[in-house]
Amino acid sequence: MTPVPADSVPLPADFAQFVTLEEAQAAVRAALPGPGTEWVAPEEAFGRRLAAPLQAKVAHPSATESALDGIAARAADTQAASAQAPVTLRIVGESRAGQPFAGEVGPGECVRIYTGAPLPPGADAICPVEQLEFRGEGEVSLLTPARTTDVRHLGDDFAPGDELLAAGTRLTPARVALAVAGGHAQLPVLRRWRVALLSTGDELKAPGSPLAPGEVYDSNRYGLRGLLLDCGAEVLDLGRAPDDVAELAARLDAVGGADLLLTSGGVSMGRYDFMRDLLLERGEVTFWKIRLRPGGPTLLGRWNGLSVLGLPGNPVSSLVVFELLVRPALTGEGLRTARLRAGAPFGHAGQKTAFWRGELRGGEVVPYPKQSSGVLRSLSDAQVLVRVDPAQLVAAGDEVEVLWLG
Length: 406
Ligand SMILES: Nc1nc2c(c(=O)[nH]1)N[C@H]1C(S)=C(S)[C@@H](COP(=O)(O)OP(=O)(O)OC[C@H]3O[C@@H](n4cnc5c(N)ncnc54)[C@H](O)[C@@H]3O)O[C@H]1N2
Ligand code: MOO
What we know:
Layout: E1 16-19, H1 21-31, E2 37-40, E3 54-55, E4 65-66, E5 70-73, H2 75-78, E6 87-95, E7 109-113, E8 125-128, E9 132-134, E10 139-142, E11 151-152, E12 163-165, H3 173-181, E13 187-190, E14 194-200, E15 204-205, E16 216-217, H4 219-230, E17 234-241, H5 245-253, E18 260-264, H6 274-282, E19 284-290, E20 292-293, E21 299-303, E22 306-311, H7 315-331, E23 337-342, E24 353-361, E25 364-367, H8 376-381, E26 384-388, E27 399-404
Parallel strand pairs: 1-19, 6-7, 14-17, 14-18, 15-16, 18-22, 20-24, 23-25
Antiparallel strand pairs: 2-13, 3-12, 4-11, 5-7, 5-8, 6-10, 9-10, 19-21, 21-22, 23-27, 24-25, 24-26, 26-27
This protein binds ligand LQZAQKY5 and molybdate ion.
Residues 199, 201, 203-204, 216, 218-221, 264-270, 273, 294, 296-297, 312-315, 317, 373 line the site of ligand LQZAQKY5.
């Protein structure tokens, strides 16, 4: 039988307590190993981060071409064209995307042309088909002048050697398309982080199973899993562990090949907060407790060389701490913040930096009515977290910094 531990554990001397949010962010970033590079095909690249800058290998467009379906002509020939006095040109050929016109466009001449087709030598302007009247074989009347602005020039978008994307850029769909347009068939991306996930607590139950009073569904693991996937990480799901020191130690021992272990629960001040005990007594602790609300009891440490971030069990706390510490470390990006006007006062949390759940009302942000860390609906309903620093006073009408929730 596991002995019941004392309420307070003896604290080793060499770790930080009550660190600031910024210190905690830096420590979590430092707890990850160096990133590695791998090459992926464009179809595998969505959501990944570039490991190196990407230069264009080709020009886009690859030729000077038409932006419209119509005719290509010499602008000077068509200046006088109008609906009342159309200008008639002789059609000497056709230019299609992939099948350019071989000859040259002379005075009084034009070629039929389609969007993306190369502009033939001699021509410098386009008149769209809506402004044309075809006169039997070989002749066309223009109801407006042909425009040079409907020509897309060689390399307008980018030229060979231009930097298209910086190292570290997250590959959105538009950026994957840009990389392909720039001539890349393989992209250097950062290796995916492999993050293990473990929920702790005797009271945790699988989704949908019968629930006795005091029991709770293991919702944190599903929220955290989604956040990890959203950050492009690979999830090693370790399920649930009971409140039992020996069992917990065995589960930690068995984690293989992860860059980071995220746990939820068991890090606060209770007798059965065994994640805290294990790391304090038998592992290493970098910090325990952040001057932060929610998420104060968060613990960062190591277990046999494995970095472990112990998130608090309270449902809001675990997900908020992820947003503040884990997302920036995994993505290498700063917090997604903005400034908004407060539509009502926000309190501070003493010496702690508070992140209150906020709802948008007519362009202003107001506090969600229930701010307890157990009210998971606050996080689901809110659009932003409102940062209030220690002793900061926020009155209605003041600007506040907010963090967008995904
Ligand atoms: N005397 C003190 N008590 C507490 C303090 C404190 O400073 N002094 N800090 C409070 C704060 S703040 C938080 S946050 C919690 C964190 O506690 P633990 O990390 O030890 O979490 P548990 O006690 O295991 O659980 C707390 C709460 O969350 C529920 N829970 C746990 N895991 C899950 C899960 N996977 N899915 C859904 N819900 C979960 C659990 O049932 C509890 O209700 O400590 C305060 N106490
Ligand atoms: O920090 Mo606890 O996370 O406030 O409930």
